[in-house]
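pasting for the record
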Amino acid sequence: MNDTKILAGIAKVDISPTMEQIAAYRTLHKEQFRDVKHRLYARILALRDEETGRTALIVGSDLINVPDYFMIRERLSEAYGIKPTDMILGGTQNHSSIVSDPPDIPTDARPDFLLAVRDCIHDQIFAGVGQALAGLKPAKIGWGTVPSIIGINKDMTVVNGVPMGANTNMYEENELFILLVRDLSDKPMAAMLNYGMQGVFYSTMVDSHISGDIHGAVSAKLEEFYGEGFIAPYLIDASGDRSPLINGDLQSFHVVDGTLRQEKVPLPEEAQDRLLDWLSGLQANDAVALIRNIDCSTEKLALRSGEIFREGVTRVPPHVSGGGKENDLTPTGTKKHRLHFVALTNDLVFACGDSITQSDIGRLVKNCLPVKTVYISVEGGVTGYVVARTTREETFGYRFCPFLDAEESERIYTESIQKLYKEAE
């Protein structure tokens, strides 16, 4: 196929903090991080339409979000002439960055070393985009889905306002999506994975390691399998109420004597390493089988994109993070919430939100468009936690809830994405 109209380029850059930066972070009474257990990466996929010159960027990072994403987005736009809305800057919803945890430190009060970490992440992403654009070559794309092998637990419905921990029977949305890019010799260049699961094995809110967690391990496993010249960026699906099943047990939250507590998984360090490798190996092998069978026959991109800002009701943040019922449900004002979509072809749309959403809202977004929709629930920066009507009513460590109730959240998400998509036709 020599008449392809798609050019593709890839890059992978290290965005890990230094031990000095981790030590400085611990002085802020943020003592959960001890060391860098696994390096953090940003993986960049650039796709360009040869006829129009229009370029889409997909950046997957081993973070909960790209800090101050609007800054690097504008910088990339100015340097390379790429429309800001043609970029997806996504994370994997794990708490592995000292600047991309839930933002309890106000933006204008962040100390210089945190700004330096942010700037380093931006510089590395900027350099990676430059590498990807410099390496553009004729390619073709395709996509497919398969049920994920890694188990997912969905939070149990609240009872009298209190979440009752794990609900082992409520599995849903276990679809692993892969966007595959091959060169003209049919060699895989990139496999962008999309799956909704929190990265909370190594990267919990307390006593954590810096790590790409399970998502990063899956990416690394695939990259090792396919070798140099291949990347596996991971962008998270709606995952705010979904955690992995660990060793047959649940890493979850339970009410003990009226207090909400997180269950710890009592495994020694060596067993944790083996377990993480086993879990990532299972999903990677699953992905390998899917990659082998994906037909990359799409010859032309059909890039469209758009964004919209909608206001939602805000409420008072909880006084204590890490669990427990909301302290106050009183509305305090409104907050602008960003919705964004990128259509790569006429049949494939990425719908993006800038908060960590519950899986039922993610499903609604996926079902609201007449095409295959892949939902990215942490795109750019975290603004808060969207609370689902039938699940937990607290924030589990997130300092800011952008909406008072789930019905408003559902309306804002679905109506906005539908409106954006229709206007861009």
